[in-house]
Design goal:
58% helix, binds heme C, Cytochrome Bc1 Complex, Chain D, domain 2
């Protein structure tokens, strides 16, 4: 009797040991995969701009070249964007420069689309709660800055 009981214990012990070994093997594998995931997405910080749908890209800025829109957009920028993109829009600790060629050459419609949709998974918030005219004012302001060769990013 005692013998069979020990045999049973041994069987259970072995099964448990196998399970622990299996876990010990798979856990690092899973976490290694997780770590690798962001590296695979190693695309440019501006890659999202190229993903705007054609219709959005072609949208016209109703406030293009409006000096009042530039001023209003500047205020909105200080309020909502400077925290991450820096006071001069040349980039900060949290977000890239908006005076890079990729952003400055993007159409107003593309920038409007980015503001409306954000790039949430990469830390750029959605601004669809700002009324459309305010979003266009920000776009007008960004466009008024022009490209800056020197940027902190
Ligand atoms: C909480 C920080 C944060 C705030 C606030 C923020 N952004 Fe961003 N923004 C980011 C990050 C991070 C990226 C880079 C996203 C990526 O890697 O694609 C980004 C990217 C962008 C881009 C480039 C699009 C692209 O391809 O990623 C534009 C244009 C932009 N932001 C405009 C703005 C404007 C305008 C505001 C204010 C209304 C603003 N952002 C507020 C964090 C922020």
């Amino acid at each position: 009797m005692t013998l069979t009981r020990t045999a049973k214990f041994r069987a259970i012990f072995r099964a448990a040991l196998l399970l622990i070994c299996a876990l010990a093997l798979t856990v690092p594998l899973i976490s290694a995969q997780k770590e690798r995931a962001p590296a695979q997405k190693d695309e440019s910080v501006y890659a999202e701009l190229a993903k705007a749908p054609k219709k959005a890209v072609a949208r016209r800025n109703p406030m293009e070249h409006d000096p009042e829109a530039v001023a209003a957009g500047g205020k909105l920028f200080d309020l909502h964007c400077a925290e991450c993109h820096g006071e001069t829009a040349e980039g900060g600790r949290k977000a890239p420069s908006l005076r890079a060629r990729e952003v400055q050459q993007a159409t107003p419609g593309t920038l409007f689309w980015i503001l409306t949709n954000g790039v949430v998974r990469r830390g750029m918030p959605v601004w669809s709660k700002l009324p459309e005219p305010q979003r266009w004012q920000i776009v007008t302001y960004l466009k008024s800055l022009g490209p800056a060769e020197k940027s902190s990013q």
